[in-house]
Design brief:
By secondary structure, the chain is of the alpha/beta class. The chain folds into 2 domains: 230 residues, Diaminopimelate Epimerase, Chain A, domain 1; 46 residues. It has 6 helices and 13 strands. The strands form 4 sheets. It has a 5-stranded mixed sheet with strand order 1-2-4-5-13, sandwiched between helices. A 3-stranded antiparallel sheet has the order 6-7-8. Strands 9-10-11 form a 3-stranded antiparallel sheet, with helices on one face.
Length: 337
């Protein structure tokens, strides 16, 4: 009888402990799940990673509506004719992260470009830090190399220093569009005020009426050395010793002007075997649309007056176009102005 009573008491105690442990385990699991969900929600805090309201997102209010409309015309032309998505984010700051990490995170949060194609390009202006980033989608890296991304940013900086942010963005994105159109083998058509202006590499726009054959001949002569340099650039993306991917950085030595190209150094470093090399190269003169006048002033064709109302709280003319789950390849370039 005594043994039976002891056994019953032991079983009762054991059952109680099991129930308590189960309750504790369940509570721990719920807490862990809550932490995971909370961490996921904090991965992209809304204050630093806002939702896109369009492809041109000005969260600070430095663009006029004319700026936004002109940039959207370029965005539409590139997307419809090449399948590449352009996006812009003007933010007050990028927090404690580097501009490079912020660029990757914002790009992937927005999903710029189509999934599994990843042909997108994001330009970020961080106003408080005066930092600039061009983040390139994985599928676009063979066309917009790190060096070309830096070239596009260098075209923007003189405008930014004069607080002409719309014109600067347009000049840099136009340069990127030229490379993309060249790679696609097309003559990009950009609609503005009911007319179409054909884009040719080198000088932005050609007035209607110039013979297409002459344009193609001149463009071919200009682009042949560029194409050869681009081919060599692609070959240089791999380490000649161990074939690992090189880390490529660009440094401007002499700033380009509207009439004379600049001078820069491109450094190649292998993080695996320690290989290092440097090459000097000339950057192209600053491109501006016809009629824009000197860099310090004068409206271009898409930026009539540069007066008008400012863009408000990231609002553009349209909703996001071409955002389909694209991912960043980590390539691109960064600058300060």
């Amino acid at each position: 009888m005594l043994n039976m009573m002891l056994n019953l008491r032991f079983r009762g105690t054991t059952t109680g402990l099991i129930r308590k442990n189960r309750a504790r385990l369940a509570g721990t699991a719920v807490l862990a799940l809550a932490i995971i969900v909370s961490a996921g929600s904090l991965a992209y805090p809304a204050s630093l990673y806002p939702e896109p309201n369009g492809n041109i997102n000005d969260y600070v209010g430095v663009l006029t509506q004319s700026d936004i409309d002109g940039l959207n015309a370029l965005v539409d032309a590139v997307l419809e004719q090449t399948g590449v998505t352009f996006a812009v984010a003007i933010v007050s700051e990028h927090g404690d992260e580097s501009i490079e990490m912020y660029g990757v995170n914002l790009y992937e949060k927005w999903g710029i470009g189509q999934e599994n194609e990843d042909k997108g390009l994001l330009v970020i202006l961080s106003m408080e830090e005066r930092e600039l980033r061009m983040e390139v989608g994985y599928g676009l890296e063979p066309v917009i190399t790190d060096g070309r991304a830096g070239e596009c940013l260098d075209m923007m900086i003189p405008y930014f220093r004069n607080e002409e942010y719309g014109k600067g963005l347009y000049a840099g994105l136009l340069n990127a569009a030229e490379y993309i159109a060249q790679d696609a083998g097309i003559e990009l058509q950009i609609k503005e005020h009911g007319g179409y202006w054909p884009l040719v590499p080198g000088d932005g726009y050609v007035q209607p009426g110039i013979p297409t054959g002459m344009v193609l001949l001149v463009a071919g002569i200009i682009l042949l050395p560029v194409a050869l340099l681009a081919y060599q650039g692609i070959k240089r993306r791999r380490c000649p010793r161990c074939k690992s991917r090189l880390v490529i950085t660009d440094k401007i030595i002499q700033q380009a002007t509207a009439s004379v190209g600049g001078l820069a150094v491109r450094a190649y470093r292998c993080p695996v075997c320690g290989y290092n090399d440097e090459k000097r190269y000339r950057t192209r003169p600053i491109v501006r649309p016809p009629g824009s006048g000197p860099i310090a002033g004068g409206p271009g064709p898409f930026f009539g007056g540069f007066g008008g109302g400012r863009g408000s709280s990231g609002r553009g003319s349209f909703g996001p176009r071409g955002f389909g789950g694209g991912r960043s390849g980590g390539g691109g370039a960064s600058r300060r102005w």
